[in-house]
Amino acid sequence: MEKNKTRLVVIGNGMAGIRTLEELLKMSPDEYDITVFGAELQPNYNRILLSPVLSGEMAFQDTVLNDWSWYKDNNIKLHAGKWVTKIDRQRCVVETDDGLAVPYDRLLIATGSNPIILPIPGVNLSGVIAYRSIDDVEKMQAAAKVSKRAVVIGGGLLGLEAANGLTLQGMEVAVVHLCDWPMERQLDKVGGGLLKDALEKRGLKFYLSRQTESIFGMDKVRGLRFKDGEEIEADLVVMAAGIRPNIALAKSAGIHCERGIVVNDTMQTYDPKIYSVGECVQHRGQTYGLVAPLFEQAKVAANHLAEYGRMRYEGSSVSTKLKVTGIDLFSAGDFNAGPEDEELLLQDSARGVYKKLVLRDNKLRGAVMYGDTIDGPWYFQMLRDGTDVSEMREHILFGQVHLGDAGHGGAASVANMDDKAEVCGCNGVCKGTIVNAIVEKKLFTLEEVRAHTKASSSCGSCTGLVESILANTLGGDYSTKPSKKAMCSCTEDTHEEVRAAITQQNIKSLPQLMQALHWKTPDGCHSCRPALNFYLLSAWPGEYEDDSRSRFINERVHANIQKDGTYSVIPRIWGGVTSPAELRAIADIADKYQVPTVKITGGQRIDLLGVTKENLPKMWGDMVAAGFVSGHAYGKSLRTVKTCVGSEWCRFGTQDSTGLGIKVEKMTWGSWTPHKFKIAVSGCPRNCAEATIKDFGVVCVDSGYEIHVGGNGGIKVRVTDFLCKVATEAEVMEYCGAFMQVYREEAHYLDRTAPWIERVGLAYVKQRVVEDAVGRAELYARFLESQRYSQDDPWKERAEGKDAHEYAALATIE
Amino acid sequence: MNWIQVGKLDDIPRQGSRIVNTSTGEIALFRSVGDEVFALDNRCPHKGGPLAQGIVHGKRVTCPLHSWMIELETGAAVAPDVGCAHRHDIKVESGLVFINPKT
Ligand code: SRM
Ligand SMILES: Cc1cc2nc3c(=O)[nH]c(=O)nc-3n(C[C@H](O)[C@H](O)[C@H](O)COP(=O)(O)OP(=O)(O)OC[C@H]3O[C@@H](n4cnc5c(N)ncnc54)[C@H](O)[C@@H]3O)c2cc1C
Ligand code: SF4
Ligand code: FES
Predict the structure, then answer these.
(1) Partners of A321 in the beta sheet?
(2) Least Cα separation, residue A404 to chain B (angstroms)
């Protein structure tokens, strides 16, 4: 043991305690001298997976999260199989049942919870078992080998999983439950009824609305008597009547407890040296019995133990899935509609599908789904984000697929997907590869799946699918994203928190930002640096000096890198309108630099492909001389404004779409945005400029201009939402600038407008841009102000020598 | 040892890189935020991406083509990716950069 290290003692070798250590070791690997006490004989395992172990679908070994060597590799002293019997807070020592005494400087209590054992006669008979640990599972399996009839008391999540497992072990199983239907805390009556029917088909027998009076037998259990006098036979009784936070130890040490050990938002108990996480904890009056919130708690506790002192745990909302193979069931939030709530219902008996959504003020409050749960994570996300769903009300019950989200569309259900089906098109990863990685490498989170398989690490359109596969493979609640999602692994802060800090704390440089927010890496990574650079740029236009080292290569050298390391050059062609003189100039330049490919792009302009880096500044110099500016085809910035010929030529044209497009492009070019931004103006509803799949699209009509936003023609095609109609070109300009500015100020870096609008809701955008005229004018003014600093042509600057080192080799040697 | 002077430390931007052409291909020189200098073949072990164009962070560079991360000290790809970019000896003396290209 090293002398001068701070001593951390952990009581409880379970899921929350050890997760806290994992998080702590990531942040601060050498800070503590760590000792862990665990009453169980096994190393840290995944309690959630006990049900598949019980049913025989999994081996215990596969549930181990950290095996013995992990403790050794991290210098953690583990006492497995030892009970802590006393915490002496005066001397700061914990004592065990076999007389060991270990001192601490910090203590973490993670003792989980205890199964509730009903206070009825007979509970001490042999053959009465709780369901909590691998020991319990082994006892049940042993019983299943020699006896026939099992009764499970409790028709909640655990009870049903136990009952299902025992059925698969060959027993005849009955479930006794107090309420009229099973899982009443997670399901409404209809959902519960469907579940009951499905389980009965699998051979389970239900005794509902029954109360057990006693368990009888000599020394071994023989059966069970209800309050109404009926008796049933049983060789095995499993108690699954709920759990109670395990607080006896903390209580006896005088630590303030109510239902659980009371902690504050930093997971500290009333004794500042003592932290607590997991099911034993009571936070803001709540206790939790699912891992997702406990993992969030673990993160916060670790953050404070590592003395970062920055995160707060603010409570969690949870969702539930039942891990019975073949039964799809999902619930989240509050699904019992009150008088102010609305209920949306879908019931398809033929397909065995039931869905109920509860709305209040156009926001989701709760969801129950049975039979088809693929949209569960999507509803849950909207529930937690408080998304305004008024615009999608008509389709919401049918799921995300019906909102034009092609990313999910192909597969009706992840479970039915073939292993060879491709999930991530960018990286060519199929379902089987992902499932194998999750199982073999014991992955829990989306980030881990990304790191190990590359799935969802590129364009991200398959993220939802990958999350569903995670949920499906692991069961349980791993699908849930934490309610707080850090920007990247260099920080605990979310995009919103970082953006808020920049303006509130007046932060104006990258090093200052990383210091103020306690970045965990010296200078960030390739994922956060470009985001931070953009946030600073958007917060302080004209003032913040762009950091080219934090830009992706394309933006750093103002050209698109190609697969062979050469670049492409796309000059701006305003509104897609050109002239013989311009075309001649382009042709001459292409000849002069022997450009191998000249192509008309999908954005109404011309691409010169295959230019070497050394030639870029010279070529740009020639472009600039011929009157061109950069087309920013490489940037998270305004790309093109596509137009059609409009009223000037077209027999259907209602307005001058070409002229308006050019005006809009002159106003918006050069602007940096969270992701690329595309605009189009069509002269009539025939829409030849494809305005309804652009970030901002204008469709001219006789009486004015329809404005559409949030379209995307890329990976997931999304048709725009109609924002409003205006009467004049000047209004189009104002709405365009204002819309770009809200998007720029509030979206996450790398969000296109389509996912951004789906997250914040169209109603919000309407409120900011349409309804609030004063706010709109202010947004527009801020947009124009920042444009004053961003319309210097980057090509011209570089042709004149800026950043010359980017384009030339340092030396040539033999 | 065959040390060749290729330029000044100041020629390489902090958190940036420059390339040196050689008869056997390009070598990328990197300078970290802490002013350490490293040299690797300018070829990503994945699909040959030009590492010199990547974002340099800590003692790593992220390849611009498919975002593999490469350790500047060793040239090894950061797990779970596997592969190695050839490294070369490099030193800085009185502000001048010398390399000893491995063949
Ligand atoms: C050149 C061009 C193809 C062409 O030859 O026509 C093109 C080329 C590339 N597109 Fe595109 N896109 C081009 C029009 C489009 C269009 C059509 C349009 O704008 O009307 C789309 C669909 C519309 C849309 O974006 O909503 C399009 C959707 C994408 C996407 C998917 C974006 C999405 O949000 O789903 C990507 C990937 C990305 O940005 O992450 C992409 C990415 C790319 C990249 C940058 C891939 C890369 O990272 O290297 C290609 C660069 C090649 C190069 O060096 O020039 N390109 N790309 C087109 C340039 C238009 C221009 O003048 O600027
Ligand atoms: C069968 C089953 C299925 C489940 N399915 C799901 C699911 O699908 N999804 C989900 O989110 N959650 C599920 N859960 C709940 C989840 O497992 C728990 O929420 C989680 O394990 C709680 O973590 P914890 O660290 O608080 O407690 P535990 O994991 O129970 O860890 C506490 C540990 O502390 C030890 N301990 C207690 N007192 C002492 C002492 N005095 N001295 C030494 N050691 C002590 C205990 O032995 C135990 O090992 C399931 C639970 C069970 C039992
Ligand atoms: S569709 Fe776009 S990204 Fe794909 S190959 Fe063509 S140009 Fe490249
Ligand atoms: S070539 Fe470097 S990551 Fe693919």
Answers:
(1) A330
(2) 28
Confidence of residue A254 (pLDDT cuts 50, 70, 90): very high
- One-letter identity of residue B63: C
Question: pLDDT at position A207, please?
Answer: 95
Q: DSSP labels for A509-560?
A: SHHHHHHHTT-SSSS--TTHHHHHHHHHHHHSTTTS---GGGS-HHHHHTSE
A273 three-state secondary structure = coil
Rounded Cα gap, residues A99 and A85, in angstroms: 9
Pairing label, strands A149-153, A172-176: parallel
**Residue found by looking up tokens 């789906």 in the block:** A758
Q: Tokens 């010199």, residue?
A: B52
- Residue whose CA is closest, atom 3 of ligand 4? B66
d(CA A692, CA A3): 68
* Burial of A594 from C-beta contacts in 10 A (0-12 / 13-18 / 19+): exposed
Alpha helices, H only, A419-462: 431-440, 446-453
Phi-psi region of B36 (alpha: psi -120 to 50; beta: other; left: phi over 0): beta
Name residue A66's amino acid.
Answer: N
Give the distance (Å) from ligand 3 centre to CA of residue A529: 26
The residue with tokens 């008869």 is B23
Which one of A436, A553, A556 would you mutate to disrupt binding with B, by most B Cβ within 10 Å of its Cβ? A553
Nearest ligand, CA B52: 4
CB contact under 8 A, B58 and A814: no
Q: Do B12 and A524 touch (CB under 8 A)?
A: no
Q: How far apart are the first and last CA of chain A?
A: 55
A110-137 b/e with 16+ CB inside 10 Å = b? bbbbbbeebeeebbebebbbbbbbbebb
**A331-340, A501-510, A572-581: the lowest-pLDDT one:** A331-340
Please give the pLDDT value at position A458: 63
What is the Cα–Cα distance from A122 to A128, expressed in whole angstroms? 9
CB A166 within 8 A of CB A159: no
The predicted model gives A109-114 an average pLDDT of 97
The structure tokens listed for A707 are 């404005």
Q: What is the pLDDT of residue A341?
A: 87
Q: Which pairing describes strands A811-812 and A422-424: parallel, antiparallel, or unpaired? A: unpaired
pLDDT band of A57, cuts 50, 70, 90: confident
- In 3D space, the residue among A626, A625, A665 whose CA is nearest the CA of residue A643 turns out to be A665
Backbone angles phi, psi at A592, to 5 degrees: -60, -40
Q: Are B55 and A565 in contact (CB < 8 Å)?
A: no
CA A280 – CA A244 distance, rounded (Å): 8
The alpha-carbon gap from B67 to the nearest alpha carbon of chain A, in Å, equals 8
Q: pTM for this one?
A: 0.61
pLDDT at A477: 46
Stretch among A442-451, A567-576, A578-587, A773-782 having the lowest mean pLDDT: A442-451
Please name every residue paired with A682 in a beta bridge, in sequence order, or none if there are none.
Answer: A699
Nearest residue by C-alpha to atom 7 in ligand 2 = A476
Is A811 in contact with B6 (Cβ distance < 8 A)? yes
Q: A676-705 burial, b for 16+ CB within 10 Å, e for fewer?
A: bbbbbbbbbeebbbbbbbbbbbbbbeeebb
CA–CA gap between residue B40 and residue B52 (Å, rounded): 9
3 state SS of A813: coil
Strands (DSSP E) found in A182-328: 205-207, 212-217, 221-226, 231-233, 236-239, 243-245, 261-263, 274-276, 281-283, 319-321
Q: Tell how far the Cα of A714 is from the centroid of ligand 3, in angstroms.
A: 10
- A519-558: string of b/e by CB count within 10 Å (b at 16+)? bbbebbbbbbbbbbbbbbbbbbbeebebbbbbbbbbbbbb
Cα nearest neighbour of A562 on chain B: B65
| Span A139-158, pLDDT tens digits | 999 999 999 999 999 998 88
d(Cα A156, Cα A163) in Å, to the nearest integer? 10
